[in-house]
Amino acid sequence: MAAEFDVTASLKGALGETLLTEHKAAIREYFANWCTADLETNNPEWIPNTTHRTIFDIERTPHSYDVSIDGDFATWYPDALYSLRFESVRRDSASFEAYTIEYPIEVKTGQSSELSDNQRAVMATIEQQEIPVFPLRIRVDVADLPDSFSIVPNRIQHIGDPPLPNYSTDNTRSPPSETRQESETRSLSSFKTTDGEQ
C-alpha cells in the first residue's frame, strides 16, 4: 500500500544539507576552488607564498562554536565543516609545516529560510577573531521539488521476483504462536513427507 507524504520545510532542509555533504566529488572540487579564490580575494595573507599542496575536506558532524557576546554565552552548531589544509612540500627553513583554514557552513534551503539571530551573532563574532575561521551561509535552491512524494514498502518475496532456490535452514525454532505440541506435530509431519519422497 502506497503512502504519501508532504515535502515539509524540515525535509527540504535535510535535503539541502545532504546535497552539500554527500555529493562529495563535485562538491569537493567546487568548494576547494571557491575557498581558495575567497582567500586570495579577501585574506591573501593566509595563502602560502612557498610551494605547497592544498587538501580540501568535508566534516559532516563538526564541533560547536562557543562565544561570549556582551557577557552572554552563545553556541552555534554548523551543519558541516569545510576545511582547506595547506601543507608545505619543501623541507627548508623558509617553509612552513601545515595549517588549516576552517569554513563552517550553515545550509539554508529555499528562499524563505534565514539565519536565526543567534546563528548570525555567533558567525559574525567568529569571523572577527584572529583564528582563520570564516563561516558561510549557503543557500540551496530547491524550487523545482514536488510538493509531496509517495513510498511503497514491500517485503522481498512480495515484489514479483523469481522464487529463491532451495536451501537448508534451521527449522528448530517455532513461530511464536505455536505451542510445543503443535511444533512437534509439524516437525513429525515434515519428516514423514520427506521420508515418503525418498
Detailed description of the structure:
- This protein is α+β, with helices and mostly antiparallel strands and 198 residues long.
- The protein folds into two domains: 3-148, no CATH class; 169-198.
- Helices cover 31% and strands 26% of the residues.
- The protein is built from four helices and eight strands.
- The protein has helices at residues 9-21, 24-42, 117-128, 180-197, and strands at 3-6, 52-59, 65-69, 72-76, 80-88, 98-109, 136-140, 148-151.
- The strands form three sheets. Strands 2-5-6-7 form a four-stranded mixed beta sheet. A two-stranded antiparallel sheet has the order 1-8. It has a two-stranded antiparallel ribbon with strand order 3-4.
- A hairpin with a 2-residue loop joins strand 3 and strand 4 (72-76).
- The longest helix is centred in the N-terminal third of the chain and has 19 residues, at 24-42.
- The radius of gyration is 29 Å and the shape is extended.
- The two termini are 43 Å apart.
- The model has no long low-confidence stretch (mean pLDDT 80).
Concise overview:
The chain has 198 residues and is an alpha+beta fold. It folds into two domains: 3-148, no CATH class; 169-198. It contains four helices and eight strands.
